[in-house]
Design a protein that fits this description.
- Pfam families: SMC_N.
- It comes from Paracraurococcus lichenis.
- Keywords: Coiled coil.
- This is AAA family ATPase.
- By secondary structure, the chain is of the alpha/beta class.
- Among the domains are: 214 residues, Rossmann fold (3-Layer(aba) Sandwich); 175 residues.
- It is built from 23 helices and 13 strands.
- It has a 6-stranded mixed beta sheet with strand order 7-10-11-3-12-13, with helices on both faces. A 5-stranded antiparallel beta sheet has the order 2-1-4-5-6, covered by helices on one side.
- Helix 8 crosses helix 9, helix 12 packs antiparallel against helix 16 and helix 18 crosses helix 20.
- The radius of gyration is 64 Å and the shape is flat.
- The two termini are 34 Å apart.
């Protein structure tokens, strides 16, 4: 036998095995016998647990089976399995505690799966094997799918098909390729943007056409024959230039204002001048003002000079009316400012004295704290800590440091002296911390007072300046009172002066008006000629002429104003048209950019769809290749092996079980279990419906062996737990021959457990060693009510038959 070989097994308190059992396994064939419940299945399950870390048959029945692995009467258990390859030994083990399982070294996942599915057939699985494969589907994780993949080495095809499976549903494609959803969103967004921009462009084009028609009408109103199109818009601003109309309108409005002024002059000249009355009033007003000047002039001049001296930087009005309104206010404001400055200066001086006193007191407090801190030892806290730790070593009156007897001093006990010293030093340390905080507060207060002193010393003025400020404040207050007393006199002088000036102006104007009426008609004749109006008739009055000429000017002015309004409206509409054309260009660029983005997204999506279709084509091709391979392998390989094995064990059974493969091409082939008659004909029903109980077990057993032989051999072990259920003698004899062939010719290490004593003896004879390297081990399990499980083993070697040779 080549490959790894099971060497020995040690089981302690595992399932129905009580106590410790040592079972050698280093033989080509191992036969295990024991009554029901003796521990045969437990022994084989221990092999599976050590190799794979689990017991598949128990796990199918109960997911929490691990809590039942330890024997009920035990608290600890273990399974140790040793294998050998040539001279190398490998150990697989598992440890059982109350409710827990700890596995050590196990087979890798691939070999562990092979052992559980292809090398070990538990007794409980024998009756379920056909049903498991009968109900199996085409999912990747199903037993049949795993077998097909391993049998035909379809891992790559399965991986390729599994990877391409999401391509069938676009929703899965969106999940696997996030860019796909993004492109679809981008395409939808681009389509919506293009549609919206095209709708906006249509509205803009309609609005632009309407505005161009309105602009054409305005140009026609202005008498412009310039064509209005999008091409000729650049030359239109020159045609709409209002400069000529504006100049003409300004000229006419100026002439209209001149005409109104001339009319007012003429109407004023018609009023009686009253020259004698004006001259009489002028003489009386002059005499009154001269009398006031003679009586109050010197005092007012002195008061003005006094105010100007107090306010050298203020320019006072030169006339009496302005002086009486401005001077009292300015003098009173200056007086209030001087008084406020003097009051603030005195408050700053007083605050300076108070702050200097506070600083001296704070400095004295800080110095006192510094002296007190200097008097306290700096290492008081550390010394107190050291003495406190040292006090633990004071046992009597002998000092633990200098070894002197403290009782010689007569000052009490040494421990009390040390404790008192520690308390004093601890108090000094606390006092030092408190003084440190007080010293920081005092220093902060001194620094704050220093900053206040610096600010106050910069603002305080000396006593001479303060006295000068007081004198100025008093002088300003006196001037303000003097101005208040002279207010009535000043206002009377201002009134007399204004009356004298007004009467003098009226007299001068009356002399001029007499000559105005004489020149008015001549000026009106010249104005009529300047505006191209009809000249004045001999009998036409000046009032009628003024009305006629003014009406003519107003008509022309209104015409020019309407023309300018039309030009402004056309200019504004031209700006709107240009803006609309610009917006249309922007929309066109947006449509072009969005259309480009839409085309790009559509192109990429088309390419992605092509890739998806290629993937689907590859997936269909993979399905076709797999279908071909599965159909060929099942029909030509597995079914043939299964048929040969079944016919060997049940030579008289007319119905043979087989896998049926659909001939039609499908996405996933699902082999079904059927029966076929040996003489041919239609396919029969399932094995469960066509075979007896014994032949059904035979079909399951031969299916397991066929599956074991159909896949590449990874482990050369074949372990069967009581495989002869419901078999007659013919089936048993054929099974023995099959096991002998597997062991002797195919190099399998066969382990078979049976409960029937006669069957055990028969198999021992049939499977006995047939050549020098062949070997056979028998294990007999037994247990009593009050003792642990016993395992008696016996090894059989090859022996030459000398008797027949002599004969």
């Amino acid at each position: 036998m080549t490959g790894p070989r099971l060497k020995e097994l040690e089981v302690t308190n595992f399932r129905s095995i009580r106590g410790h059992v040592h079972a050698p396994l280093d033989a080509s064939v191992v036969l295990i016998h024991g009554e029901n419940g003796a521990g045969k299945t437990s022994l084989l399950s221990a092999i599976e647990l050590a190799l794979t870390g689990a017991v598949q048959s128990l796990q199918r029945a109960d997911p929490s089976y691990t809590v039942q692995l330890l024997h009920r009467s035990s608290t600890q258990g273990a399974v140790i399995l040793r294998t050998e390859i040539s001279d190398d030994e490998a150990v697989f083990d598992a440890v059982l505690d109350s409710g827990s399982l700890r596995t050590g070294r196990t087979l890798d996942a691939k070999r562990a799966s092979f052992f559980s599915e292809r090398a070990y057939l538990p007794q409980s699985l024998l009756g379920q094997l056909l049903q498991i494969y009968q109900d199996s589907n085409s999912e990747v994780g199903s037993p049949l799918a795993k077998f097909v993949s391993k049998l035909l080495s379809l891992d790559r095809l399965d991986a390729l098909e599994a990877g391409l499976r999401p391509l069938a549903d676009l929703r899965n494609v969106r999940k696997l390729a996030p860019g796909w959803s993004g492109l679809e969103t981008k395409r939808t967004s681009a389509e919506r943007l293009v549609n919206d921009q095209r709708r906006i462009r249509k509205e803009i084009a309609e609005r632009l056409g309407t505005d161009i028609q309105r602009l054409q009408g305005l140009c026609a109103t202005l008498g412009l024959e310039h064509p209005v199109t999008e091409v000729t818009l650049e030359a239109l601003p020159r045609a709409l230039d209002p400069s000529d109309d504006v100049k003409l309108l300004d000229h006419l409005e100026d002439r209209s204002r001149e005409l109104r002024a001339l009319r007012r002059e003429v109407e004023g000249a018609r009023i009686s001048t009253g020259t004698d009355v004006i001259q009489s009033e002028n003489s009386a007003a002059a005499e009154d003002y001269v009398a006031w000047q003679r009586e109050h002039g010197p005092a007012i001049a002195e008061l003005r000079a006094r105010v100007e001296a107090l306010l050298p930087n203020v320019v006072l009005s030169s006339d009496l009316a302005g002086f009486v309104d401005d001077a009292p206010t300015r003098v009173l404001a200056a007086a209030m400012e001087a008084a406020s400055r003097a009051t603030s200066a005195r408050a700053d001086a007083a605050r300076l004295i108070v702050v200097e006193g506070q600083r001296e007191a704070s400095v004295r407090q800080r110095d006192a704290i510094d002296k007190e801190i200097a008097a306290i030892p700096g290492d008081a806290s550390g010394l107190a800590t050291a003495l406190a730790e040292l006090s633990a070593f004071v046992r009597d009156e002998t000092c633990p440091v200098c070894d002197r007897d403290y009782a010689e001093n007569g000052r009490g006990r040494l421990a009390e002296h040390v404790h008192a010293k520690v308390r004093r030093l601890s108090g000094a340390a606390e006092r030092l911390l408190a003084l440190g905080g007080s010293r920081a507060e005092a220093q902060a207060l001194v620094e704050s007072l220093d900053r206040q002193l610096e600010t106050l010393r910069a603002t305080v003025i000396d006593s001479r300046a303060l006295a000068e400020l007081d004198r100025r404040s008093a002088a300003l207050e006196a001037a303000a009172k003097a101005l208040q007393s002279a207010t009535a006199t000043l206002r009377e002088g201002a009134r007399l002066l204004a009356l004298d000036v007004e009467i003098r102006r009226a007299a001068s104007a009356a002399q001029v008006r007499d000559a105005t009426l004489l020149a008015a008609r001549e000026n009106l004749q010249a104005f009529v000629a300047s505006v191209n109006a009809e000249p004045l008739a001999e009998a036409e009055s000046l009032s009628d002429a003024f009305g006629r000429i003014q009406a003519s000017l107003q008509v022309e002015i209104e015409r020019l104003r309407a023309r300018l309004s039309t030009r402004r409206e056309a200019t504004a509409l031209l700006a709107i048209v240009r803006e609309t054309i610009g917006r249309r260009e922007v929309v066109d660029r947006s449509i072009e950019a969005d259309s480009k983005m839409l085309r790009e997204a559509a192109t990429v999506l088309k390419q992605a769809q092509a890739v998806r279709e290629q993937g689907l084509a590859i997936r269909n091709a993979v399905d076709g290749v797999r279908s071909t391979i599965i159909r060929r392998e099942f029909n030509d390989r597995l079914n043939r092996v299964w048929r040969d094995l079944f016919v060997r064990l049940a030579p008289t059974e007319p119905f043979v079980p087989a896998f049926s493969i659909p001939e039609a091409s499908t996405q996933r082939l699902q082999p079904k279990l059927v029966t076929q008659h040996r003489s041919g004909g239609d396919v029969g029903g399932t094995p469960g419906a066509m075979l007896s109980a014994g032949n059904l077990n035979t079909a399951a057993l031969t299916l397991f062996i066929a599956l074991h032989l159909s896949v590449p051999r990874e482990l050369p072990w074949l372990i069967l737990d009581d495989p002869v259920q419901s078999m007659d003698d013919v089936h048993i004899a054929n099974l023995a021959a099959l096991l002998r062939t597997l062991s002797k010719e195919h190099g399998r290490q066969v382990i078979v457990a049976v409960h029937d004593r006669q069957l055990f003896e028969y198999l021992r004879l049939e499977l006995s060693p047939a050549f020098p390297d062949d070997s056979l081990l028998t294990l007999e399990l037994s247990r009593g009510v009050r003792r642990g499980t016993l395992c008696e083993h016996r090894r059989y070697h090859f022996q030459d038959e000398t008797t027949l040779l002599v004969a």
